[in-house]
Amino acid sequence: MAPKPEVKKTDKPSKGAKQVKKSSETKPKPPKRGNVSKTSKSLKGVKGGKVVKPGSKRVDKVQKALKVKRALTLGFHTKSKKRIMKVPRFRRPKTYKPPRCPKDRRFLIPKRNKLDAFRIIQNPVTTEAAMKKIEDNDTLVFIVDRRANKPAIKAAVQSLYNIKVAKVNTLNCPKNIKKAYVKLPPDFDALDVANRIGII
């Protein structure tokens, strides 16, 4: 028997295959422009793959969350302007100094008043000039502490001798001594007060 002639295979596909290929290669039709604009306007917030309608509570929450996130990323000091130095002298700005609140007190015993009435008035002056002042001008003369001022001397005399004081004059002597001339009002007699104190 004679061999059958070989049939040459052609690259062209059959009619059925051609139709299938065309159907697979068909491109999807693009959506109409009107529909696209509508969807873009209606979609204002999307959360978790779900479409959220505008004006709903979920949209407000999403917007708030985005606003907070943006504020955290930017930081707090965003509107401060850079200050330009035009003067060579630099003055340190005033900064906050927190008040001290120590856990343990440094001094447990409170400080006593070192200038009390007994320390201010040391002793009365009993010279002839001082006696003349008592008789003529109704003034008592005392030697006082150098650190004491006129109001302190007045308060000390009033508290010690139970008398009223009209005026106080002071004199700083060269030998580290301070004298106080205490003028009494007309209600009090300086001689009686001097006798009661023990000056005379």
Automatic annotation (TrEMBL):
Gene3D superfamilies in UniProt: 3.30.70.330
GO biological process, any: translation
Classification via InterPro entries: Nucleotide-bd_a/b_plait_sf, Ribosomal_uL23-like, Ribosomal_uL23/eL15/eS24_sf, Ribosomal_uL23_N
Composition bias, Low complexity: 36-54
UniProt GO molecular function: rRNA binding; structural constituent of ribosome
Keywords, ordered alphabetically: Ribonucleoprotein, Ribosomal protein, RNA-binding, rRNA-binding
Record's compositionally biased regions (Basic and acidic residues): 1-14
GO cellular component: ribonucleoprotein complex; ribosome
One of the Pfam families matching this protein, by short name: Ribosomal_L23
Region Disordered, annotated ranges: 1-58
Span of domain Large ribosomal subunit protein uL23 N-terminal: 62-111
NCBIfam families documented for this protein: PRK14548.1 (NF011118)
Record-stated family: Belongs to the universal ribosomal protein uL23 family.
HAMAP family reported in the protein's UniProt record: Ribosomal_uL23_A, Ribosomal_uL23_B
Protein name: Large ribosomal subunit protein uL23 N-terminal domain-containing protein
Gene source species: Calicophoron daubneyi (Rumen fluke)
